[in-house]
Design a protein that fits this description.
about 140 residues, two-stranded antiparallel ribbon, 6 helices, elongated
């Protein structure tokens, strides 16, 4: 039996063919007005729940990466990766790490060093590659 006041999140993709869905009907529970037509969803409706939660935490912490790291208990590179995934999910492009590292003004040296240390720790970068990258920065 269906609950009358139960509200489900809007589906953004078709469960059968995986194409984008459009909203065809809007309804006001207060005055019982119904509007039918073809309505688009916002870009955010197409993001996974995990990415929406990340955006909520990002905004709550006013983009402060250190606070986001603490609240989500994740490292700087993970915050950066999640932010990149959200950016791509919203339809924008993201520069790769090499392009970002080559622009000193975009990332403070201490954050770059921390990112490199995190990559070494995770086995994503060798010590030799890290030294070469840091020597290029001098």
């Amino acid at each position: 039996m269906k609950e009358k006041n139960k509200v489900n999140p809007v589906l953004s993709t078709c469960p059968v063919c995986k194409h984008e869905l459009r909203v065809a009907r809007l309804h006001c529970d207060y005055c019982e007005t119904t509007i039918e037509g073809s309505f688009t969803l916002s870009k955010f409706n197409y993001l996974e729940t995990e990415k929406l939660y990340f955006i909520e935490i990002f905004i709550k912490n006013r983009g402060n990466i250190k606070q986001i790291e603490k609240e989500l208990n994740i490292s700087y590179p993970t915050v950066k990766k999640m932010l990149d995934e959200v950016i791509v999910g919203l339809g924008y492009s993201v520069e790769d790490d090499e392009a970002i590292y080559s622009k000193e003004k975009e990332e403070p040296k201490s954050a770059l060093k921390q990112s490199i240390l995190d990559k070494i720790e995770k086995g994503e970068m060798t010590v030799q590659a890290a030294l070469e990258l840091l020597n290029k920065k001098k």
